[in-house]
Amino acid sequence: MNNIDLIRMATQNLWRRKLRTFLTVLGVMIGTSSIVVMLSLGFGMSQSQKDQMASWGSLTHINVMEGYGPDMGNTTGTPNSAKLNRESVLKLEQIPHVEAVNATIQSFGTIKAGRNETSASIVGVNPDIMESFGYEVEEGRLLHTGDKMNLVFGGEIKNNFYNPKSNTYQEIVIDVINERLKLVIGDEFGLDGADSKAPKEYPIKVVGVFTQGDYSTDYSIFMPIDQLRKLMEESNRTSDSGSRNSTRLEEFTSIIVKVNEVDNVMEVQNLIKDMGFEAYSLTEELDSFKQQSFMIQAILGGIGAISLIVAAIGITNTMIMSIYERTKEIGVMKVIGASIVDIRRLFLLEAGVIGLLGGIVGLIFSYIVSLLLNTFGAGFMNSMGFYSESKISIIPIPLSLGALGFSVLIGLLAGFFPAKRAMNLSALEAIRTE
């Protein structure tokens, strides 16, 4: 018996018992869609967590802090204090998979625009690495090599100006790019030199404004690191506390290391810790979220699998009933020369077709449910105050193909016992059975 004959007979047998076939396919459909929808919710939750963490900062960035431990270049075995200085930057740049190192210093300053002013953190940064670290401007441009008193403002700075001499507070929005501004360098608790002489005001030019929504830049002002260091040194010389910060000017306030791939972050982070630094990255939190998501997906998938197991029982029942009803037919097939292999293939093919049809319909139903969840569920979540751009339900292509293959496999496994039973039927006894 060739394959075409087997397919034709299987199709005719399934169509002859349309209602039973429909109900069995319906059971497989419910089981397949249950697994797919449940797992899609897990994938959606995992992606939402990942997007939320990405909004906190890049997953390929490692924050490096001063630590106390064995230094990479130390062969004596004694612990050395790891400082954030130029030598450390050179060592960090030599670590495999490191694309760039962003070493910054930080001060505090007041920006004056006529009668109005605002205070903000002043960050000194190397202009050459700003683009590689993903800094984006809403207006103007980033810092360039050769800039001196050119600055880039955070997206919220322009909204924070006020008149210090006014009796009532009124928020004033300044066009910082076109306004004439002056900068006064000082610490957070009072302007350096305020107890000795009037602080010096430096004319500045704003060449860009960062895109709003990034907490790391919204309330900070960025300028070339070498220029900020000079201003801080000059501020120290003119203040009574000139020696207070002089020892810290050669060190950096913070260092961020950019890794080429997310998969290499933990390896680089461990190497940085081996150098004696403290290191932190969002990838650590992401790994924890992945473990939690995997457990939740396993639970959701297990719940959906119960429906598919019930569907497998339904397929088995359908095929066994079919054997009882077709006993004489099986005997005739054996008498006219059909091999037991052909009989087994016939029943397995019928069971596989039921699994395939149920899987296809289940996938279509799953995509419809996913679309409804993402359309109406997202609106409901937003109305409740949970704003997220991530989808509630995500069905990856591998999940669809895996679910389809799994439904066919379930059909074949469910049809194996009935097919074996059909093979073992005696041809003469089958013919005598009415």
* Adjacency order of strands in the biggest sheet: 4-5-10-7-9-8
- Outline: elongated
Number of strands: 12
Low-confidence spans:
69-79, 188-195, 241-247
Q: H/E order of the elements?
A: HHEEEHEEEEEEHEHEHEHHHHH
Main beta-sheet annotation: 6 strands, mixed, barrel
Percent of residues in helices comes to: 40-55%
Number of helices: 11
Structural class: alpha+beta
Cα-based radius of gyration, to the nearest Å: 35 Å
So what's the oligomer here? single chain
Mean pLDDT: 79
What is the terminal-to-terminal distance? 25 Å
Strand content: 15-25%
Overview of this protein structure:
A 6-stranded mixed β-barrel has the order 4-5-10-7-9-8. It has a two-stranded antiparallel ribbon with strand order 2-3. With 434 residues, it is an alpha+beta fold. Helix 2 packs across helix 9 (340-383) and helix 9 packs antiparallel against helix 10 (397-423). The model is unreliable at 69-79, 188-195 and 241-247 (pLDDT under 50). 50% of the residues lie in helices and 17% in strands. It is built from 11 helices and 12 strands.
